[in-house]
Structure formats: C-alpha cells, structure tokens
C-alpha cells in the first residue's frame, strides 16, 4: 500500500485526512502551474501544527505525510526525522534540519522549546530551509496555542493547524481489533464487546492515552491469554 492508501485506511481522523488532502492538492496544482509556465517549482510554506492528546496518531500521520508529499513530487527525499522539543538545543536543532533535508522534521512536545535561543534558531532554520524541509510541531492543544503566542514569528511561518480528535468508543474498539490482528490474534465478539466497554469508560479519564491505552490493553490481553 502507498502512504496515501495507508492514511485513508486509518480508523477515524476524517477531518485530518481532509486537511491533508487539501494541502497536498493545492501544492500539486501549484507545481503543475509552474511547469506549464516554464518556472521552477519550490514548495510554498507548508509548516504545520499537529495538536492533540497523546496516542491520537500525530506521529503516524506525519510519517505518512512525508511519503505522500514525496510521491506527489512536493518533497525530494521523503525523509522523516523525529525529535522531542524537550531535548533540543540550538545545535541539535540545526543538525535535525540538515538530517531532514528533502523531507519532514517532526518535533514532538514542541512547546518545551519556549526559550529565546531554541525558538530563534527554529525560526531561522525554518526560513533557511523553507524550500526543502516541512516542519511539523506537535503537542497538546492548549500548550501549542501558548507556544505560538510565545513569538509572533511562529504564527507567520506556520500556516496550517491540524487538530487530532480523541477517538470515540467505537473507533477504539476497531483499533483494538486491528492491533490484535497485527499481533496474529483474533477476538470473539464477547471479548470485543468487553474491550469496547472498558475503552468507552476509560476515555473519560484525565490523561487518557487513546491509541497508547489500546496498545497497553492489547498487550495485557495477550499476556493473560498466554497465562491461561
């Protein structure tokens, strides 16, 4: 399957998929315009915010986006470099941009960079590599809004805000079945119904981890089956 097909096959995320489609389509058409006019195509500013709670598939979608952008001629290498804002300083930030050349630089917990040095370096590198690196900054909704307000330069350089919703109970149960299948297991209907009951209650608890919680549940299920 292509990265685009894998994205479309993901459970839920209807609005996220629509936004990705829109961003890709706009740049594909712009590329065709440049070709027809005999001009060189350079990707426009496509930096993004991926905002949502843990386990809402932000990293997975960012990886697939890198592949989709490469397949459509928007990015050259389709490289995907993942790092955490918690561990980034000016030097490692510069090195990350070099490693991500022709692809996507994904910075999780980007709000942890709320210091003048790293933010200034981030803005400078985003400008220096605007034609060859797409930056995706990820984190909680409120934290990412506060991060954007930390420096006005961030707002002007990041045109896209993509919000990742929490999964509902039905979607979580589908993810449960999918993860079991990927591990080589199947579940009886009674077991799936019990999983749905557990997941539908757990999603209202503060700090619920969405897909991460489901993965932990699947691992527990497999362990208990082995014990039996």
Give an overview in words.
With 228 residues, the chain is an alpha/beta fold. Helices cover 56% and strands 12% of the residues. It has ten helices and five strands. It has a five-stranded parallel beta sheet with strand order 2-3-4-1-5, sandwiched between helices. Helix 1 packs antiparallel against helix 3, helix 8 packs across helix 9 and helix 8 crosses helix 10. The longest helix has 23 residues. The chain is globular. The two termini are 36 Å apart.
Features:
228 residues; alpha/beta; 5 strands; 56% helix; 12% strand; globular
Question: How is the topology of this model organized?
Answer:
Layout: H1 3-9, H2 14-36, E1 48-52, H3 58-71, E2 80-84, H4 90-99, E3 103-108, H5 116-128, E4 133-139, H6 141-150, H7 152-157, E5 160-164, H8 169-182, H9 189-202, H10 211-227
Parallel strand pairs: 1-4, 1-5, 2-3, 3-4
Helix pairs in contact: 1-3, 4-5, 8-9, 8-10
């Amino acid at each position: 399957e292509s990265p685009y097909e894998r994205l479309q096959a993901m459970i839920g995320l209807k609005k996220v998929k629509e936004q990705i489609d829109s961003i890709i389509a706009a740049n594909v058409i712009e590329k065709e315009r440049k070709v027809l006019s005999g001009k060189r195509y350079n990707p426009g500013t496509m930096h993004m915010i991926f905002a949502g709670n843990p386990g809402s598939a932000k990293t997975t979608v960012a990886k697939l986006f890198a592949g989709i952008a490469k397949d459509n001629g928007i990015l050259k290498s389709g490289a995907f470099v993942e790092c955490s804002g918690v561990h980034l300083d000016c030097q490692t930030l510069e090195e990350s941009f070099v490693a991500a050349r022709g692809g996507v630089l994904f910075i999780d917990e980007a709000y942890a960079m709320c210091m003048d040095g790293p933010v200034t370096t981030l803005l400078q590198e985003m400008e220096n590599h605007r034609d060859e690196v797409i930056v995706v900054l990820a984190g909680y909704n409120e934290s990412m809004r506060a991060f954007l307000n930390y420096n006005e330069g961030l707002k002007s350089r990041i045109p896209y805000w993509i919000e990742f919703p929490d999964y509902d109970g039905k979607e979580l149960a589908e993810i449960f079945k999918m993860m079991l299948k990927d591990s080589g297991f199947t579940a009886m209907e009674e077991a799936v119904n019990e999983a749905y009951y557990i997941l539908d209650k757990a999603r209202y608890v503060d700090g619920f981890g969405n897909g991460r919680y489901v993965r932990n549940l699947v691992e527990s299920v497999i362990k208990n089956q082995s014990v039996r």
